[in-house]
Amino acid sequence: MLAGFLEAVFNGVSIGAVLLIAALGLAIIFGLMGVINMAHGELMMFGAYATFVVQNICKQLGGLWFEVYIFLALIIAFIFTAAVGLILERGVIRYLYGRPLETLLATWGVSLIFQQFVRSVNWILVIGIALFSLLFFGGLWILNSRTNLGRVRNWIVAVILLLSLGVTIAVSNLLSQTYQQAVTQPWFGAQNVDVTAPSWLQTGISLGGVQLPFARLFIIALTIICVAGIYLFLQRSNWGLRIRAVTQNRSMSACLGIPTQKVDAITFALGSGLAGVAGCAISLLGSVGPNTGQNYIIDTFMVVVVGGVGNLAGTIVAALGIGTVNYLIGSGTVALLLIPVKPLADFFTFFATTSMAKVMVFALIIVFLQWKPGGIFPQKGRTVDV
């Protein structure tokens, strides 16, 4: 009984570790910019799919490549999702600062677009997006180098847009007719895909009768490295100092010469990159699909709220606590422990599923927030008023 309980606690901590990596990025973004990023889960999904792609490439290369692909996948997942986050911030978020409801709706729409993109992406779509971006933004770059265009400029932009769309559609139709199946076949589709861990992560160790899988130990170690890295970045680097300054007082930071827009972009890219790392960790726990991010986004937001917005220590405590409690209730471990007390055992047995466990955890969180609405470690001083 004790060994089963300790094993359930360990599994819960490993799930909490994934939530912690994702919540770190969300806490930084929400704490600095006040942006409610509903597409954060889809950035985790992109990280998981990046891991899947790297795994397939390294599996074809064989040998040592497959054994170390997870480290390469972590780097690529971070860079790719950070780039997507940077584009999202520059293209959408920066126009919505100070309007949290609009950012929520906009990023929710972006999350739906990302989900459908993964279901439908193929060579035609990728080539079309790349060609349109090259023609349209290249045309705008050339146009911006010209001056004194006056009122004609808007008409020229409209013509560039129409020409870019026309050329992109014509090329896409030509490719689809010429190569057909080769370029129209979806890369991933709507079905889930499986990521195979390296052989050294497929085993585990037994400690006092408790089975500890290496994959979950790897996730916990990865979380510790990410937390330490973020702490050192925020406390020891120049950009970390700028981020903390903007978080405390944006207006004063701007007056002192800190480029707040650049800080926003770097922060959003960093938070998005952490979501990609979390997605890489998720891929080691189960299959990956277009809806993968939706399974974690609500829990991640709950971690940020319960821990206290922008508080690193609170985020750590909340992530590990929510992940562990969720797993203990959902796996039926709590119900087994309370078998001697039949009414309580029956009560927790009713919630001994993944979905019902989330319901109970959310109810507990609501009760907790009635007691401490600012979270475990609420903000104090001038930060609250900014």
Could you characterize the architecture of this molecule?
- There is one protein chain.
- With 386 residues, the protein is mostly helical.
- The longest helix has 32 residues, at 2-33.
- Residues 381-386 have low confidence and may be disordered.
- Helix 3 (64-91) packs antiparallel against helix 11 (260-282), helix 8 (214-236) crosses helix 9 and helix 13 (312-330) crosses helix 16.
- The protein has 2 domains: 2-110 and 194-376, no CATH class; 122-185.
- Strands 1-2 form a two-stranded antiparallel sheet.
- Helix content is 75%, strand content 2%.
- The protein contains 17 helices and 2 strands.
Structural class: mainly alpha
- Average the pLDDT over all residues and give the rounded result: 84
How large a portion of the residues is in β-strands, by DSSP E?
under 5%
Helix content: over 70%
Strand/helix succession: HHHHHHHEEHHHHHHHHHH
Basic shape: globular
Work out the radius of gyration. Answer: 24 Å
Integer tally of domains: 2
Poorly predicted sequence stretches spanning 5 or more consecutive residues? 381-386
Per DSSP, the total helix count is 17
Cα(first) to Cα(last) distance is 51 Å
How are the strands ordered across the major sheet? 1-2
Main sheet summary: 2 strands, antiparallel
Instruction: Give me the count of strands.
Output: 2
